[in-house]
Amino acid sequence: MPALGIAALLLVVGIISLFVREATRLASLGLFVAAIVAAIASAIVIVPAGHAGVPVLFGKVQNFHLSEGMHLINPLVQVTALSVRTEEYTMSSATREGRIKGDDSIRVLTSDGLEMPLDVTILYKLSPSDAPWIYRNIGPNFEAKIIRPAARTAIREAASNLTAQEAYSLKRKELAEDSQGLPRTPDRQSPRPA
Question: What is the overall mean pLDDT for the chain?
Answer without folding.
Answer: 77
